[in-house]
Amino acid sequence: MKVVDIRSHVLLDPDFDIGATSSAQDTIVVEVVTDEGVVGVGETDLNAWIARACIESPGTHTMDQGIKHLLLGRDPLDPEAIWRDLYVGTAMTGRRGAVVHAIGAVDMALWDIVGKVRGVPCWQLWGDAAVSTLTPYASLQPDASSMSVYKETMVAWARRAVQAGFTAVKLEATFDGPYRHKGLRAGDEKITEILQTVRDTVGPDVRMMVDVQYAFDSVERALRVTREWDDLDVFFLEAPLWPDDLTKYAELSTQSKVPIASGEWLATEWEFRDLAERGKVQFLQPDTGRVGGISQALKVCRLAADLGRQVVPHAWKTGISTAAAAHLAMVTPHMPTFEFLPPELSTSRLRRELVREELVFENGLLAPPTKPGLGVELVPEAMAEFAAAAERVWPSAAGMAR
Ligand SMILES: [Mg+2]
Fold first, then answer.
1. Which residues are placed with Cβ below 5 angstroms of ligand 1, an ion?
2. So what's the architecture of 124-377 in CATH?
3. How far is CA 25 from CA 12, 21, 47, 212, 350, in A?
4. What's the rounded mean pLDDT across residues 2-16?
């Protein structure tokens, strides 16, 4: 079997809002096509136009190639060997960041091919089932530009999530720092106020997490805020500090009573080793695309097991990424939950319309995937509409030859 084409689709939600801090508004979907007609689908979480350039660019140095050039003609059935070759063959520009994120989309598509060829769901390629059902959590990020609307919406959504059966929710409570979702601003005491209100709404049995998206500029400030949470039973605090400062993460992780989670932006198992060993965080949060694909996400899961950490993947794109996270959760006993926003609770049209997915959320749980590969099917009409929307923003002829 041979790879004969790689199609890179840049897709955009026509209703996108440039003031939103959400990566669910655009995506790159990769189709890896084989000579035997099997097509694998993958996705990753970075600027979709840059992702396409990483895949389609030519190169003139043996270690600075484009991904497509390296992949054409290869047998797709050994994704881990291909990963190493893509990583080395792009190393001068890549090694971390965008190129590794882009390799992630291709790697996901290759695993989809392997599952389809073998006739088994992807997770069965990686080990025995660690769980009999999957327990996802709902991320709640209200679209609001005033605190009163934000609070009202957050409470309504938390109630809705629990009514839908969720046993875990994560509040995006970001009122300072670089994430300026809809320009919302407030003092740190508002985070605690929101947590308290949601805890009162959902009751004591729902697992509650909070993501402040890099809002705190010091360890002291993070500790001052989390000290108020003793009675709120917060499962973890996500991304409290800027991700490069692992010394501060280590200080916070060792001093905070609330466990610390981080890693949504990281690429490769090596960045996660630093985060765990130097940053000492308790929860590792690989995004299955960004980290470099499933091949790398599996390594992060093994690393976490070795170091006694838990894994809670980030997944904020379409049903392709959420499927990848679900397959990973099937074989990872130290993954207590993972990000899964049901399409009907998402404001993103990409999340709602791009794929027909196998996963159906019912009574707080997802059944184990059984379809071959990742079990997702692209919807052609949605693809066409979202590709046209992206083309209007930056016509490919103005960007690069395709
Ligand atoms: Mg986050």
1. 211, 264
2. Alpha-Beta Barrel (3.20)
3. 6, 9, 10, 20, 7
4. 96
